[in-house]
Structures are given as structure tokens and as C-alpha cells.
Amino acid sequence: MVAGLLSLGLPLTTASTRYVDDGTTFAFLLVLLSYASYLPAEVERRASAAAGAAALGFALFHPTLLGFDRLGEVGAGAWLAVCAGLIPVGGLLAWEGSPSPVRRETGPAGLPLLLAAAGLALVLAGLWLPAHAGGATFWDLSSSGHALGILLLVAAALAAGLVLVATLSPAPVLCHGALLAAAATFGVSEAPLVAAAFADLGSLGSGAWVEAAGGALLVSAAAVVALPLRPGSLAAQAASAASE
Predict the structure, then answer these.
(1) What are the backbone dihedrals phi and psi of residue 18, each rounded to the nearest 5 degrees, phi first?
(2) Contacts of 81 (CB under 8 A, 6+ apart)
(3) Tally of CB atoms within 10 A around 108
(4) What is the C-alpha separation between 61 and 228, in angstroms, rounded?
(5) Prior bond to 138 cis, omega within 30?
């Protein structure tokens, strides 16, 4: 968390671009890192670690954009931001021995599978659509080697796969892993949208919107699987009714 906060004011590239130069980007990362700070206090551990994973995914956007032949241009701020990956690692260690999430019956279990399938389909489709109006697709957006496209492909496939396995066999480690993988996918897929908000949203291509929607659906699917239902909540009542 400290490394992530320090990265906000340090150069992302040799051109001295910083996260604080864009108000929306700065606010987005600050909110994620601030929420992740609840993790050591043992408050909302799952959601806090997921916020850290989302910050990691967002931080990976700049290095992969310059990968692989221009990694020398990546600044200290970008590399420090990647250290946010230590937050979900800490979350996994903290979850050891924690109680299992509420198991969904056959009815409610269809929801995360549907969300995950739709999210994966959108992320895959978005790879071949332009990230910016009239620009390159996400698959060709990186400097070389399709680094960003590969990252999105692997992250989305891992998240959807873990949601599937965790839905069928909701062991804590699988549920937690699904949430973290989906949150990281959400972070990287939302990066272009956050960077363009709000004045430059018109410059985004269809791929940016499709990727953002896919990432949101994947993290929603993982949240249904991993986050426990609170007794008396509407979601808990709906799950109880569907299982009867």
C-alpha cells in the first residue's frame, strides 16, 4: 500500500507523466488503495484485498503498453504501482483458516456462471476492437509483442475459470482466487476508460467500452461467489427462496 501511494506522485515514464496529472486516475487509484488499507485491520478482508488486486491490474496497464521493447522507458512510479500486487498476496495469507463462503444452491449458482461467461466473451471480443476511435485494437496497442492483449486474455480466462471451479466446488482458496483474478482483470480493463474520463470519453473506441463492461461482469461474477451473504439481506433471502 505504501508503494502504491508513493507511485501516485512519481514519473510513470521517462516523459515524466504522473498519476496525479490526471484527476480521475489519481482519485480512482487513491480510492482503491485507501479501501485496501482496511486489510491489516481485519475489516472486510475479501473486498479490501480485491481493491488491491484491482489497483494491481490498473498499474499493469502502463508497463504492458510499453512492452516489450520499450520497458526501459517505464518510470519508477509505474514499477512502484505494480508493487500493489503485494496487497492481494497478503489477503490470501490472511484468509488462511477463514470460514468458507456461503454455498449457493443450484438455482443461484447459475448467476455467477452467466456473468462470468458474458464477461469473458466481452473481454475476448474487445481485444479485436479499437481502443481509441480510429486507432489500434487492444491486441495491437502495445509497443511490441501484444503484451496488453496477452495480459487481458490470460487474466480474463483465469478469472472466468476460477469462477467456474469455485461455483462447482466453493473451497475458500478457489473463491478468494476467483475474486482476486477478476478484480485484477477489472483494473486493467477499466484503465483506458478511467484515463479518458470525463472530458475525453468521446475519443474512446468501441473496444474500450466492451473491455470495461467485460471486466465489470467478471468481477461481479466473482463477488457473487466469494463474498458471503449477510443474514437477513435481500440477497440472502433470494438465495434461500431459490433453494426451497
Answers:
(1) -125, 155
(2) 3, 4, 7, 19, 29, 55, 58, 59, 62
(3) 20
(4) 30
(5) no
Which residues lie below 8 Å from residue 143, measured CB to CB, with a gap of 6+?
65, 66, 67, 68, 69, 70
Residue entry with cell 473451497: 171
Place of cell 511490441: 144
Residue pLDDT, tens place only, 74-124: 999 999 899 888 877 776 666 655 554 444 443 456 899 999 999 999 999
How many Cβ atoms from other residues are within 10 Å of residue 43's Cβ? 10
* Cell representation of residue 170: 466453493
Q: From its phi and psi, is residue 43 left (phi > 0), alpha (psi between -120 and 50) or beta?
A: beta
* DSSP 8-state symbol, 155: H
Residue 76 phi/psi, 5-degree rounding, is -65, -35
Distance CA 70, CA 63 (A): 9
Side-chain-facing half-sphere of 232: CA atoms under 13 Å:
0
Q: Could you give the CA distance from residue 129 to residue 116 in angstroms, rounded to a whole number?
A: 20
Give pTM, 2 decimals: 0.86
